[in-house]
User: Which sequence fits this backbone?
């Protein structure tokens, strides 16, 4: 048995365990619940801020259509919270809809219901008004939302499983019976958060949401979306795929909350600046969900293999490799690259391990520092569907042609790295004819 086979056998159980973890699965499904809504909000953001609109028209569109963004992307934490409660309860065999409602209500208990009233000219705080700051339902509240949802749903599930439910007679309508059945578990979960909120506010004169944001969310996001953290996530995604494991599902389930939080932060900056583009110097975050999709996946799929398909189709003499490239061209344009991954193959093929790992890591480094040095704008916070082809996706993500240009440069880098390895494979004897 080769060393690669041995390593694969050791990695497989670990990766499967991570990928099958209930709480990571629930978290992934909760974000997918919000996906259609955030995509709609992203479309509104892109449309309202197209570079060729005059400023007066942008302002008009913002006033007319801004609610489409505020009711979707800007309050993502709401949908994620409900999704966690729902999917975790359902997975545990408990009524999901009440689990979602309890999780959401628990999050609201921990969310300050007042916000500072600020003088727009001086920036001076004039007082407080009874209103929820929209950022607390989005970027700023993301982690307290997830923590509250998991704890609230767990309490609700535990009390239900222990039999702390009110059972109604058989003749009672099912909707009424389910409501009474959820009464005590919901009461227990909500009372827990009410007392936690009261203790933190009364004793420490602060609130749970701000403390979670300060001590948990910001450090985790800072580490996970830093350059080293991003490179580790990228390497693990590629490394797992090399052994036939879906690296994106495994790694994204851990990292997507961090990337999405940065996306929402960029969206807030975009709204405040009212500019076509935002830069790192404006405080915008580099590593967002759109960054990880647009400048990695949307270059032909995981591993950025569209250029590999092109080289195989038009630059290789061996018929078998040429056919694989042609087969992978059309799907690759829309960032589907299974024909290349399993047809070349890339999986467990030691001949392509170096370019498979090296090209995306080099490109991610180039992209990170292009945005860090303000040569290219950061992503605006809008999500771009992963099937959008190269060049178009770069423009939509950054609201700038520089995003498209960066993708073209990425494309060339990947091709330069892969070319010698593919040519070496082309020179080998064609075993299919032996």
Assistant:
């Amino acid at each position: 048995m080769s060393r690669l086979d041995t390593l694969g056998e050791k990695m497989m159980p670990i990766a499967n365990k991570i990928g099958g973890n209930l709480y990571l699965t629930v978290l992934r499904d909760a974000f997918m619940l919000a996906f259609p809504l955030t995509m709609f909000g992203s479309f509104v953001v892109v449309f309202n801020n197209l570079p060729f609109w005059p400023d007066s028209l942008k302002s008009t569109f913002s006033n007319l259509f801004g609610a489409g963004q505020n009711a979707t992307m800007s309050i993502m934490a709401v949908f994620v919270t409900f999704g966690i409660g729902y999917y975790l309860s359902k997975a545990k065999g408990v009524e999901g809809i009440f689990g979602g409602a309890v999780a959401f209500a628990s999050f609201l208990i921990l969310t300050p219901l007042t916000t500072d009233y600020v003088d727009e000219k001086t920036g001076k705080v004039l007082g407080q008004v009874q209103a929820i700051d929209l950022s607390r339902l989005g970027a700023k509240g993301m982690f307290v939302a997830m923590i509250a949802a998991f704890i609230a749903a767990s309490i609700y599930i535990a009390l239900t499983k222990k039999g702390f439910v009110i059972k109604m007679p058989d003749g009672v309508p099912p909707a009424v019976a389910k409501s009474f059945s959820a009464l005590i578990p919901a009461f227990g979960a909500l009372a827990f958060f009410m007392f936690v909120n009261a203790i933190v506010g009364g004793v420490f004169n602060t609130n749970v949401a701000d403390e979670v944001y300060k001590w948990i969310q910001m450090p985790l996001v800072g580490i996970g979306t830093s350059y080293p953290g991003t490179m580790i996530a990228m390497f693990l995604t590629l490394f797992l795929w090399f052994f036939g494991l879906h690296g994106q599902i495994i790694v994204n389930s851990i990292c997507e909350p961090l990337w999405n939080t940065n996306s929402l932060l960029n969206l807030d900056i975009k709204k405040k600046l009212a500019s076509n583009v935002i830069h790192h110097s404006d405080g915008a975050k580099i590593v967002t969900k759109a960054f990880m999709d647009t400048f990695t996946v949307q270059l032909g799929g995981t591993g950025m293999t569209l250029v590999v398909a092109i080289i195989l189709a038009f630059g290789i003499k061996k018929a078998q490799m040429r056919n694989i490239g042609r087969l992978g061209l059309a799907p690759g344009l829309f960032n589907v690259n299974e024909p290349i991954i399993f047809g070349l193959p890339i999986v467990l093929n030691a001949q392509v391990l170096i370019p498979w790992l090296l090209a995306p890591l080099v490109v991610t480094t180039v992209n990170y520092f292009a945005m860090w040095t303000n040569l290219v704008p950061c992503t605006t916070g809008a999500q771009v569907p992963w099937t959008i082809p190269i060049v178009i996706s770069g423009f939509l993500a950054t609201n700038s042609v520089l995003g498209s240009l960066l993708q073209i440069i990425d494309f060339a880098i990947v091709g330069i790295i892969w070319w010698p390895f593919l040519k070496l494979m082309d020179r080998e004897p064609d075993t299919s004819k032996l």
